[in-house]
Amino acid sequence: MTFTFFQVxxxxxxxxxxxxxxxxxxxxxxxxxxxxxxxxxxxxxxxxMGFLVVALEQRNLLNLYPFLMVGLxxxxxxxxxxxLDTYMxxxxxxxxxxMLYVTISVLFSIMALFGGIWLGRYLII
Length: 125
What we know:
There is one protein chain. The protein has helices at 2-30, 36-58, 65-76, 79-91, 95-124. It is an all-alpha fold and 125 residues long. The chain has one domain. The radius of gyration is 16 Å and the shape is globular. The model has no long low-confidence stretch (mean pLDDT 94).
């Protein structure tokens, strides 16, 4: 049990660090007025999670679930950041941006998860 907590903690630290680096990089490249980094993170993380659902199950590597799924991807993709970005767009009065952000984030993240599952099944089976 202690080892599992260590896996989650290590994965979470790595995932959160990757998220921070991605958000900062996106803001420097594209500007900080719209949360592109968080959108990218949620979509990419959903795709990777979808792929790993299949890969871990098919390869009988469910022991990596705490590190990869809960820790790494849990720290990398977080809807608390999504919620905060949504609130900030609201506070700025950017209702069109808010609607666009929520729509893109939710739809594309779900589509990416399905895509990851599809690719995982295609490559692994």
